[in-house]
Amino acid sequence: MRGYTRRSFRSGSAPRARWRILTATIATALAAGVGLAGCAARPDPDAVIRVGVAEPTTLLPTAATSPADAQILAALFTPLVGFDDAGRPFPWAAESIVPSPDNRVWTIRLREGYTFHNGEPVTSDRYLAAWNYTAYRPNQQPNNYYFAPIAGYEALNPPEGTKPTATTLAGLAKIDDRTFTVTLREPSGEFPAMLAAPAFYPLPSAAFHADGRLVANFATAPIGNGPFQLWGSWQRGQSVEVTRYDRYPGERPRVGGVTFVGYREAEQAYADLRAGKVDLITTLPEEQVDPAMADLGDRILRPLSGRVQFLAFPSHEKQWRDARLRQAVSMAIDRDALVNHLFPETGVPARSFVPPVVPGARPDTCGQACQFNPDAAYELYQEAGGPATLTISYNTDRDHQRGMTEVCAQLAANLGVKCTARPAGQFTELVSEVTDQKPVGLLRMGWSQEYPSMAAYLGPLFTSTGSANLAGYQNPEVDTLVGSGIAALSEAEALAAYQLAEAAVAADLPVIPLWFERHALAHSPRLRWVTVTGAGVVDLRRLEVIE
Length: 547
Fold this sequence. Notes:
Elements: E1 32-34, E2 48-54, H1 67-76, E3 81-83, E4 89-91, E5 94-99, E6 105-110, H2 124-135, H3 153-156, E7 172-176, E8 179-183, E9 228-230, E10 240-244, E11 257-263, H4 266-274, E12 280-281, H5 286-296, E13 300-301, E14 304-312, H6 323-331, H7 335-342, E15 347-349, H8 374-383, E16 389-394, H9 401-415, E17 418-423, H10 427-435, E18 442-447, H11 455-462, H12 476-487, H13 491-508, E19 511-518, E20 521-523, E21 527-528, E22 530-532, E23 544-545
Parallel strand pairs: 2-11, 2-12, 16-17, 16-18
Antiparallel strand pairs: 1-22, 3-4, 5-6, 6-8, 7-8, 9-10, 10-11, 12-20, 13-20, 14-18, 14-19, 15-19, 21-23
Helix pairs in contact: 6-8, 11-12, 12-13
């Protein structure tokens, strides 16, 4: 396998996505939706709905990492960009985002009329202050890595043991109150799509002390620029209450407010939905989807998500350097039977490395290696002298036991080996084992889009310095092709480079795709116009309540 060598795990590389010149036309379509057409009753514009989510961890955009955090923050803030139903970006809080001829300097012009919920105008300064705060390593913000593409990031994030030599990003420059520029470390047509992430939300002056420190209680009482504003404050373990912000200049909510109810168990959320205690739940357990479809009918939404599950072959284990073994393992897995048995309602067999919801993604890019062929798999495995015992290591901070146990059973039956599905603790613990080059066998890993782009998968997972390249895969051809796509001046040119990069990955097979995942949401009969993005965020502005 070309360049399939070990490298140390790094977390500093940020994924990126495709963008070009965009101006102020706002798209309205989203990834999936359902409405109750033909209702004679009028909607109640002042109704308050209850939405069940997993327990949020923070309401601070610079630290938000969970789907529940993102769902609540999407009510409180408006990003610079959004994505339409085809995964194409459009300007939202931005009026325009224009690149220099080489895609290295991006000029952002803010849309007029946006204010924070305390009445303060949203200006360039509010973005620059928030971004510099997050990018400065001593502030220890989880979303710091998003700012790695911006010039001056190294000065704020020097090697461990050394102090930063600057407190602001050299690549940020204010032009006027509504205009600022972003200079990147390298030309990139992909960078601006990252602006949809919570890391790039603006923060008001009230978020900071005079010396630049974050106000301690801001994380529990954030002041945003979105269609809803926080009612009171929030503490972990409590519900989050938001009310419509009537000065919002964009499409305004059709309900008076939302109460987010946090659940530790998705099963309890579903029970409360059936009992009428909540109006919508953002996660429905797999085992409850089938009976829920019988009970709720079209009030179940199952749009395909951007999440994919893989098995990786860690390169520090010498046995996996034989391409025949990697191919044999892949051909020994019956993906259709796996999904039909375990995830019939929320899984889709995967035979490519980028999910179908991503622009430019193609089916079956894995080719024959991902077609179930147990006889050929057994012969190839024996020919390559495969080990008599296999281990699949998986993290336990999400329910992966059933899936990995089933994969193990298939490998044992079709390769004639003993296979053990090994729980390895939290994901960070599993990553540490790989980094320390401990024997882990096959490695379960998953990846989910932060925005719809092939680069957001190929870059982190398969480039030599990718932030999620747990296989230790190195192929200069893939590095070059992904880099060419990122620097491309047209979408067509970028997609062509990404597709060639995916083909090179498929030829090398450092990981094997297993299945794509669907979101599973459900709502009560009093709601209509429920829409959800590819990232699984419900657009709360569109919801209507029919009493």
